[in-house]
Amino acid sequence: MTASNTVKYFSYYLFVLAAVLMFVPNMMLSVFQIAETNEVWIRVVGVLVACIAVYYHEMSKLNSLPFLRLTVGVRIFVFAAFTGLWLAGVGPVQLILFGVVDALAAFWTWNNLRQAATVK
Predict the structure, then answer these.
(1) Per-position DSSP letters for 67-115, written without gaps between them
(2) Between the CA of residue 57 and those of 5, 26, 77, what are the distances in Å?
(3) pTM of the model
(4) pLDDT at 120 over 80
(5) CA 60 → CA 67, 73, 81, distances in Å?
(6) Do 80 and 103 meet the contact criterion of CB atoms below 8 Å apart?
């Protein structure tokens, strides 16, 4: 497994998440026991997640080491931000589950980057 593959696989997760947020957001919200909504903003978030997924997917194909390294910190930030939102009382605890996915994927990428650097 390479670091670029970890980012590619993470992009697949993001594509699925984006589709759910754009087309059936209340299905996901109810699964995670978050209040359902008819607001457009959750679908807007889905569009943004889709854009990020495209970046991740395309940069993984290029094996762009600066980008791969950057994703590690960004995904750790997502975990920290979602945890902070919950701690501040403005977000549900379920946000942390999404942050955990980001953190685990970041660790997976970081580990593969570290192993590749050791091999050289």
Answers:
(1) HHHHHHHHHHHHHHHHHHHHHTTSS-TTHHHHHHHHHHHHHHHHHHHHH
(2) 9, 26, 20
(3) 0.92
(4) no
(5) 8, 16, 24
(6) no
